[in-house]
Amino acid sequence: MEYGGDTLEKISLNGEWKLYYFPQQSAEVRHPGELEGASLQAIPARVPGNVELDLQEAGEITDPYTGSGVRQLQDYELHEWWYVKEFEAPLQKGRTELVFHGVDCMATYWLNGQELGSTANMLIAHTFDVTEMLKEEGMNTLHVRLQSPILEALKYEYDPSMSAMSYNWSQLWVRKAGHGYGWDIMPRAVSAGLWREVEIVVHDEVRIKDLYFYTKDADRRGAEVGIFYQLAADPAHFREMTLRFTGTCGTAVFVQETRVNFAAGAHDFRVEEPCLWWPRGYGAANLYEVRTELLLHGKVLAERTDSFGIRKLELIRTEITSDEEPGEFKFVINGTPIFCKGSNWVPADMFHSKDAARIPAMLDLFVDMNCNMVRVWGGSVYEDHAFFERCDREGLMVWQDFSMACALYPQTEQFYEMIREEARFIVRKLRNHPSLVLWCGDNEIDQFSLNRHIDPNGNKISREVLPAVLYQCDPYRPYLPSSPYYSPEFWKTKNPALLPEEHLWGPRDYYKSRFYTGSKMHFVSEIGYHGCPNLESIEKFIEPEHLWPMENNEQWALHSSDPIGLGGVWSYRIGLMANQVKELFGEVPEQLGDFVLASQFSQAEAKKFFVEMIRLRKWRRTGILWWNMIDGWPQFSDAVVDYYGGKKLAYHYLKRVHQDHCIMIDEPDNWQVRVVLGNDSLTSKQGTYRIWDADTDETLLEGSFQSAVNDNINLGHIRISHSQQRMFFIQWTIDGQVFHNHYLLGFPGFSLAGYKKWMGKMAGISAEFARYSGLDYHGKAESSGSTDAT
User: Fold this and answer.
1) Locate the Glycoside hydrolase family 2 immunoglobulin-like beta-sandwich domain: which residues (predicted)?
2) Contact 477, 437 (CB under 8 A)
3) Is the dihedral angle over the CA atoms 626, 631, 635, 641 positive or is it negative?
4) Peptide bond between residue 552 and the one before it cis (omega within 30 degrees of 0)
5) 121 — alpha (psi -120 to 50), left (phi > 0) or beta?
6) For residues 23 and 21, what is the distance between their CA atoms, to the nearest angstrom?
């Protein structure tokens, strides 16, 4: 539930609580009264918080982010946790609710010794009416009991149609962020805690309970929009009441009134020459501020203020694609096709109480990178309003997975109801954000089904339950059953080459191999390549005696990330990173500093190539969301920014090729390479450019240009020889601003020493590469003593 302007009072229950804990099977404590007689010692706890952070603060465990410290957490998976808080009653009188915005996970609640109820979902808020239960005098006492999700999972039946990764089957029945049980990007941390705010909310009896803004059609001339409403008011006055909506966007204003005939209704109207909401690069992300007033005979009984964006949203897609019958997977906003560039959003932290503090800086990276889309991956939590509000303002489109990933979940009425309740809450919570452009049923569950030879179209969760909730609660936004989606038409052949939207992982071999370049997809929603964090960051999370070598190194494996460690299913990633380095440079450096540097070069070239591979084929290809922007814990990964904020070289390479106007060089064909100017905007620009050889400074191509609108143009060709290994530097100027790119010509292996030399020259023309030039043997920058790009 969301609260509008009819809240009389809010009391935060955040801050310090008491926390009791013990193995769940070792003590019979079922009620607060039994807790007080159990002779247990409490430790201080912070809310929002996670119990592991409280244990660390109390000195009970060491830092779980460094070394092998995360392994300690497995000792607490079978514990239960009791939070206790005393507070005074609110001063205002009215309907009073106790709201828990995030509880992880199997919880029972008591107020003043009286049980309020139980909940079993980490991913949604939980609300209790406590109007008649609060003490008006003296202190009120709140108890929250959190029980082990592992023991909870033992209560359920499991069927052959169900599946998960070998180490995290216990997540299947429990509505908790899947990554906490271990993933290839996060450690095993089966946490517990009150991870979002807790508050007392007092409501007025008359209020505007809910508003839903929708756009049916829109262009620059006019828009057909509507507002759905729900009220709490005296029905005896319904026909005497009116709702007045006043929307402002800069100097543009609309005013609409409608008579109230019932507690719920909708009002459709036209806005002339609207301020349209556009994705980043295509125009302003305009937002209307709407003041809604409930009036009786001209007197305002209730009011609230919301924001919404007017934009027509379409996802044009086919179920398959082929050379004979090309399909589509294309986002269209306000009638304009949008070329999507962005990244996948993974958990902000392994302990989600830290998310709110980390997310602003994380979104700064997306804005600085000039991303226009972020995909919120289905193995994590649903982000809160602050995340979406920032995306609204920045024109950052959000692809939102429902929180299911890489597993075959229960196909029972009991589980359907769990998902139905969760989806209904999340959809109603987030549906007014114009940045939200797609609901997706899950991450890779169709693919998981294919691996098990089970037809994913029998999955009622993604094919029936979720579509029904969306049809009911948010009918004006596209839905994709899974990513990637294996339609009935695809299932006839089971040929991945027919998928319009795909996750390109495969062998993860040479980044220019046929696996990547030969794919026929239109939209890449996952693709990645490994790269070491900066050396200073590695030294923060790997203990000195384990820094090097990397082979048979338990801490490197654990931070690769493998929840098991050496011998686990993901521990091969360290060897994979070494093989990718060897592929590009013909050798694996023997010293840590050189290995860090070589792996960053390898990752940067690969990820730059992936984006250019898609941009160069616009509109046959329509978007790329690479994996991923920033780590949620310290590790060796595909991320281009490490957990501590250190930017890898790939960040800078990607920032270059994410510019609205970008000059790129295609792969050799017929003894030449094609030079292309891409424009992912609705503005044509004039400029000049030059391309020259990094070793000889010979000018290879230069001239002036006039860019096409939202399209590519060819600038010319450069004669090459396939036997050469060269680097071309590219520079262009628009409106007095200078931009850069480069192109690496030839087949590997390249000389690592030669690549360092090119980096030194690149630093001479582009300041952001100075930190990666002039590096000594240990990877330290001679001038500053740091390779951290932040």
Assistant:
1) 206-311
2) yes
3) positive
4) no
5) beta
6) 7
Residue range 376-410, pLDDT digits in tens? 999 999 999 999 999 999 999 999 999 999 999 99
Sort strands 241-249 and 252-259 into parallel, antiparallel or unpaired: antiparallel
3-state secondary structure labels for all residues of 521-540:
CCEEEEECCCECCCHHHHHH
pLDDT one-digit tens code per residue, 236-253: 999 999 999 999 999 999
Backbone angles phi, psi at 783, to 5 degrees: -80, -35
Place of tokens 């005393």: 86
Cα–Cα dist 257/267, whole Å:
9
Structure tokens at 307: 């924001």
Q: Which residues lie below 8 Å from residue 276, measured CB to CB, with a gap of 6+?
A: 218, 219, 220, 223, 283, 286, 309, 310, 311, 334
SS3 757: helix
Bridge partner residues of 704 (DSSP) = 688
pLDDT score at 437: 98
Residue with tokens 């000889």: 696
Residues 6+ apart with CB under 8 A from 547: 538, 539, 592
Q: Which residue ranges in the chain fall short of pLDDT 70?
A: 1-6, 773-790
Residues 428 and 3: beta-carbon distance below 8 Å: no
Picking from 232, 255, 229, 231, the residue whose alpha carbon sits closest to that of residue 244 is 255
Q: Is the dihedral of CA 409, 414, 417, 421 positive or negative?
A: negative
Answer for the pair 376, 345: CB distance below 8 angstroms, yes or no. yes
Residue type, 475: P
> What Cα–Cα distance (Å) separates residue 706 from each residue in 337, 658, 703, 711, 756?
21, 19, 11, 12, 35
> Is 25 exposed, middle or buried (CB count within 10 Å of its CB: 0-12, 13-18, 19+)?
exposed
Q: Which helix (H) or strand (E) holds 373?
A: strand 373-376
68 contacts 188 by C-beta, under 8 angstroms: no
Written as one string, the DSSP assignment of 422-489 is HHHHHHHHHTT-TTEEEEES-BSHHHHHHHTT--GGG-HIIIIIHHHHHHHH-TTS-EESSBS---HH
Please give the structure tokens belonging to residue 263. Answer: 């507690």
HSE-CB of 725 using CA atoms within 13 angstroms: 11
Query: How far is the C-alpha of 690 from the C-alpha of 718, rounded, in Å?
Result: 12
H-type alpha helices, 639-695: 649-657
Residue 387 in tokens: 């995340």
- Which domains, ranges and CATH numbers included, belong to the chain? 7-203 (2.60.120.260), 207-308 (2.60.40.10), 340-657 (3.20.20.80), 661-750 (2.60.40.10)
For residue 241 the two structure tokens come to: 């009441």
- 361 φ, ψ (degrees, to nearest 5): -70, -35
Three-state secondary structure call for residue 541: helix
The DSSP output letter for 585 is: H
Residues 6+ apart with CB under 8 A from 419: 402, 404, 461, 465, 466
